Amino acid sequence: MKLTQPETVAGILFTDEYQLTMAQLYFRYGLHERTAQFDHFFRDYPNYGAHQAGYCVNAGLEWLLQWMAAARFYPADIEYLRSQTSQTGAPLFQPDFLHYLSQHGHFGDITIDAIPEGRVVHANVPLTVVQGPLAMAQILETSLLNHLNYQTLIATKASRIRASGRGQVILEFGLRRAQGFGGNAGARAALIGGAHYTSNVGVSHVLGFPPKGTHAHSMVQVFMALGGGELEAFRAYADVYPNDCLLLVDTIDTLQSGVPNAIRVFEELRRRGHRPIGIRLDSGDLAYLSIQAAKMLNAAGFADTVIVLSNQLDELTIMQILAQIEMEAPRYGLEADALVKRLTFGVGTNLITSLGSPALGGVYKLVALQERDGRWLPAIKISETPAKTPNPGHKRVWRIYDQRQQATADVLALAEEDLRSLDTLILRHPVEHNKYRVLPQSAISQIEPLLTTVYRDGQMAYDPPPVAALREQRQADLDRLDPGVQRLVYPHIYHVSLTEQLWQLKQSLIREAKGSVVT
Amino acid sequence: MKLTQPETVAGILFTDEYQLTMAQLYFRYGLHERTAQFDHFFRDYPNYGAHQAGYCVNAGLEWLLQWMAAARFYPADIEYLRSQTSQTGAPLFQPDFLHYLSQHGHFGDITIDAIPEGRVVHANVPLTVVQGPLAMAQILETSLLNHLNYQTLIATKASRIRASGRGQVILEFGLRRAQGFGGNAGARAALIGGAHYTSNVGVSHVLGFPPKGTHAHSMVQVFMALGGGELEAFRAYADVYPNDCLLLVDTIDTLQSGVPNAIRVFEELRRRGHRPIGIRLDSGDLAYLSIQAAKMLNAAGFADTVIVLSNQLDELTIMQILAQIEMEAPRYGLEADALVKRLTFGVGTNLITSLGSPALGGVYKLVALQERDGRWLPAIKISETPAKTPNPGHKRVWRIYDQRQQATADVLALAEEDLRSLDTLILRHPVEHNKYRVLPQSAISQIEPLLTTVYRDGQMAYDPPPVAALREQRQADLDRLDPGVQRLVYPHIYHVSLTEQLWQLKQSLIREAKGSVVT
């Protein structure tokens, strides 16, 4: 049985094998309890092909920390590791290491500083900084990336879809097209990033949102198969849900059958003193059909009903639908603005999968090891491409706001630097030697530290805000983010810089490492 | 707490809200226990943009059935539904319906016929046929689609990647880029579809495969930060894992540092009587670097070591790497074939997300309702596009093999038709009136029924085969599938047909429904 073993597939073994083989090596060399620092960050914003993100919305942290608080090597996990064999058939993991894991194989000695969920975040900025014993910090990598990459990806997509919808309600509908139970994380991230509601019942329950949904084509088909028709189905729905009557009108023919039948039922509801909610369109030319449906609804006195659009929507499709409505509505004597203001967008597959960019390439890189005397030794990897060389050492992250109260740069600094005490900031491009900005304090309205301690002593070190508060945080950050960076297509690149001191450290480490080639 | 509520987010509430509102409507109209049939199928093979699938590999069934056997409306679920409110603040779900769910809210009365996992499957063929009480069959939809869509998508991608790799070992590495815990389903599906192993420890454990993985860049960085170098790191790895020594050689510089250091360590291992496994390349021009690395390894007497390639691989990238090796290896005096035969491919993001086609559009359509006298009433939905009109009624599915023992068509037939008893088969195109094939029995070597009963009386009605057997089934089906259909780019379209009788039924239902517009 598999799903009945969540303790196996969703516990500490929710990781990659090489984390365990490396951990044993650290143990064998007495390095397993050496304090290490790993930084989690992403190098590139999601690129959807024809369009690109200029920012991300951070998400996933609370579920990661809950997983960490519960995960540890239980006896059954240890026994499984004991059964693994080397190529020769001998045990792969030795008893002393397994004994260590059985005693210390948990995340109780790990400390995490992170940028909170709901905040706008940028490429190459450490979003999550992990410090703790090398072996367990290494084992954490896979689950941390899994939890944070996906939710940040989806919160970002949801924020874009919300922007394209001009503030109209966005419904997350994608559970059936998600990666198994990952659909739950996707629904949560969508709510953080910009969806107003989700159809996912379980996630709505645990997060305290009302789940949304009315009926599918199958309900209409049931009445048709029994010899009735769409009208009977709609009447039944209005009968059972007189105050929540939202009807899917495209089972037979939207304008010839669905909308006229809906209007008949709405009139019956009105006579009984109820206010109908509206209709949903799920196929065809959604812009054209919404104009025609709105005209028919208006003519019948239902100008206050909503029109829900669904079917393969994403940010570009929504933009196009709204543009088409603006062109086409006046031709039919309809005010485009009034129509847009009654629309709701149901977004399924393309949100839950982040169509065009189905994974965020977040990474988790060793940046420093602590000496026994407390000194930090920076670690670096010389990659084939300079842009992939991580920024070394123990660091802090600051966000600089200009005199317009707009975020103008995120700055990585050494831990001991306090940017607020400097007269002038020199902001170095992370890779290109000749690119830098000089910023006097007079040009700055605020310097904000972004990282905060979220996990310590085996538990959350902060009170995780409800999703509603995370949404407010997101909106506050977007209000202070250059609209050029928020463009859905070809956005302006936000500045992520290094302080002069950090930049000098990085250069000296690269020189040193290059010099050590073939030792 | 959220993840500590798996019974909430992974139980019966792992569904869309509209399933519950429809179920209550059926209950109110006395239809909830009417036996219904829903067909699950997909309309389009995955289309990755520049390339397309010509077949899918069926997967996900066993985990779905396990979920079904455990899921039911527990008291806490009922209490949550009781708390949901209508627009007016009144309860959305009524006590009598909730009482019904508390008594009958499980899948014990559902029967499922399905095409087994591991089989090659095609568009518009019912893969899963659900019969049971309308309300619970409706509630099942979301979870069924979630479980089957994703695993079939990934098994298909894995099969393509395996084909591109010419039978060389494929490793699934994608957990960190998956949708949360969905990564477990992805790893299982990858193993069914074509990956030989996965790095996912928990899934390897429950499925009985050895998890694969050695070390990451971070291990090398640890030794560098402590004042050592790549060579010390490699020596440590060889010391701890003398019989499993596979070294990642691109932390500093692949050809200047990584491969020479690996060879030194391999020589030391050889002197101690161990056989080194090989190296992994994770950046740069993998074709060029594998040629150069192979030359260096050969010159040192390690021609039998493997070379693992990773970094953004998918089926097209692997095809291109192999093509480049064939062009370029001879220039460096290397036999291309020998190099290809020592390669292993580690595939992460692009497999676990099915890059380019991140969701399979599988649907779940009501096709028939049973009368109290046992007669089946076919249900149909007249969509805007004829291709989307489901094939109606109670059906069987047959696969026809020609005289070369190759599958030549999948045929949908009425339940009462036995294709084996007909002299001549007329195979109708599902949509186009003028397209049909006439097939005499003499042209046919085998007619195979594809659906088998897999779930009945609240439990699995078959003995689910181990993943190893599913892989054999997949290979047997691929051996009988036209290579043109297996092409990775622009594949030949496999025939999916209706029998004359089913085709006539569909036409009459469409005429009838069109006639009933605006009742």
Task: Give a concise summary.
The structure is a homodimer of 519-residue chains. Chain A has 519 residues and is α/β, with parallel strands linked by helices. Chain A is 39% helix and 19% strand.
Taken as a percent bin, the fraction of beta residues of chain A is 15-25%
CATH topology of the domain at 213-342 in chain A: TIM Barrel
Residue ranges of chain A: pLDDT <50 for 5 or more in a row?
none
DSSP summary, beta strand count of chain A:
21
Radius of gyration of chain A: 27 Å
End-to-end separation of chain A in angstroms reads 51 Å
**Largest Cβ-defined interface:** A-B, 142 and 143 residues
Instruction: Estimate the mean pLDDT confidence of chain A.
Output: 94
Sheet with most strands: strand arrangement of chain A: 13-12-1-5-3-19-20
Indicate the percent of residues in helices of chain A: 25-40%
Tally of alpha and pi helices of chain A: 18
Based on the model shown, name its key terms.
homodimer, 519 residues, alpha/beta, seven-stranded antiparallel sheet, six-stranded parallel sheet, 39% helix
